Amino acid sequence: MNYIDPHIHMVSRTTDDYKRMALAGCVMVSEPAFWAGFDRSGPEGFRDYFRQLTSFERKRSLAHGIEHRTWLCINAKEAENVELARAVIAMIPEFLESPEVLGIGEIGLNKNTRNESVVFLEHLDLAARLGELVLVHTPHLEDKLMGTRMILDMIRLDGRIPPERVCIDHVEEHTIQAALEAGHWVGMTLYPITKCTPQRAADMIERYGTERILVNSAGDWGHSDPLAVPEFIYEMKRRGHNEATIRTVVYDNPLSFFRQCRRFNFTPAIEQVQVAEATASVSPTVRV
Q: pLDDT for 220-245, tens place per residue?
């Protein structure tokens, strides 16, 4: 089954991971800007990183037949430095006309601090002024519930971005309902240990349905699995869910969310074949 991984940090993965994902059916990845594993020393480090995301990583992806898209921001871990964050936010518009870019993300909170909230709101302002989609990182473990509530409140009080243009990522059992009820898309991140296992994600699909729900692997510097989405597909099949239900979550839903971006353009392989066949059928016969 073809699938899309809507949140995976391929800069932290090997080229062999691209091959394995392609063999498993991955046709597109969406890569949010995130922490580099260390705090960068200045804004120019982010400029180089944005160039990597919008240019080099796409070449690596396409070499394995996988489409690549990205999101731009300064991540929540480095947002504590407000001066640095403002310099990075100011450079983001330079990259926004790239067809690679889906919007602003993954913005959010890490430890739910005042400075993180200030930077989150300034990212929201940029997205609202420029009409961009937003991908939101919610905090880890004990900070998640409070952080998610803070994020939902800030988006609601700003009021300029329609809720369906925001995806609240890394939801778990205690945060998914509030995000869905607020009208947002949600993402379930499938980690082997923390966040959400494929089994727990399947449980939530069975409880909440498939509308506005995505699953992703994150595939970052920590203990993660770039084939977590196929693991979810396997779990859903094991439980007897039909192909249409699974495809909605792992393929149709990401496309529906991404297509709200004015720059997004993607022709599924089956449509490419149909166009080629239609073109061939009307081509004049050449006599020799």
A: 878 889 999 999 999 999 999 999 99
Residue 183 has pLDDT above 70, yes or no: yes
Q: Return the pLDDT at 288.
A: 44
The dihedrals phi and psi of 30, each to the nearest 5 degrees, come to -120, 120
DSSP assignment letter at 249: I
Q: Quickly list H helices, 72-167.
A: 82-91, 114-130, 144-158
Contact criterion met (CB below 8 Å) for 80 and 113 = yes
22 close to 65: Cβ distance less than 8 angstroms:
yes
Q: What are the structural domain ranges in the chain?
A: 3-282
How many whole angstroms separate alpha carbon 67 and alpha carbon 255? 12
- Angle at which helix 228-238 crosses helix 198-208, to 10 degrees, equals 60
pLDDT tens-place string over residues 2-24: 999 999 999 999 999 999 999 99
Tokens 């494929």 map to which residue? 198
Average pLDDT rounded to a whole number, residues 264-281: 68
Would you tell me which CATH number, out of the four given (2.60.40.10, 1.10.730.10, 3.20.20.140, 3.40.1180.10), belongs to the domain 3-282? 3.20.20.140
Give the pLDDT confidence score for residue 275 in this predicted structure. Answer: 53
Q: Which has the higher per-residue pLDDT, 147 or 195? A: 147
DSSP state of 10: G
Q: Provide the token pair at 213.
A: 């729900």
